[in-house]
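dude i think i finally got it to work??
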Amino acid sequence: MAIEVRIPTILRTYTDGQKAVEGTGGTLAELLADLDSRHTGIRERVVDGEQLRRFVNVYLNDEDVRFLDGIDTKLSDGDNVTILPAVAGGSR
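look at this
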């Protein structure tokens, strides 16, 4: 089962600069474990323990996984997962 994962610029050091990589897994947790087996360190940038990090947003086919089942969100062949770091700040 191939799932495309879009990687934000800040995490591309883990994927040798690739904007998107393919992974496999029946859930988001399994997908992240699969990615980490080939791109060591990427999982810990997205997950804190067994939860998504607070300032990282993950989308499954454009839907925020926090409104689905979080890290236990089920995946299907052909799905697209996008990892986005939350952006904050600005001027006063």
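The radius of gyration is 13 Å.
im so relieved honestly
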